[in-house]
Design goal:
The protein has 71 residues and is mainly beta. The protein has one helix and four strands. Helix 1 links the parallel strand 1 and strand 2.
Length: 71
């Protein structure tokens, strides 16, 4: 489980290959970092209270994703 405030560097995220839950809630993000697409074991992605309008093009690699929270 990783909950990031004041968002960590994008390159850091790509190295967390075994991460199952990621919360980027309340970070005022306008886009999802593309590095999230490499987290193939990610099951839960929490993005509440951001300003995200699009999903990364490599999001189809998130084959283990069960829950996506956007509200």
């Amino acid at each position: 489980f990783l909950h990031c405030y004041c968002f960590c560097s994008n390159s850091f995220l790509g190295k967390l290959s075994n991460l199952k839950l990621l919360s980027l809630s309340q970070n005022n993000l306008s886009e999802i970092p593309p590095e999230i697409g490499s987290l193939e074991k990610l099951e839960i992605l929490r993005l509440e209270e951001n300003f995200i309008r699009t999903f990364p093009t490599n999001g189809e690699k998130l084959t283990s994703l069960l829950t996506l929270n956007l509200d």
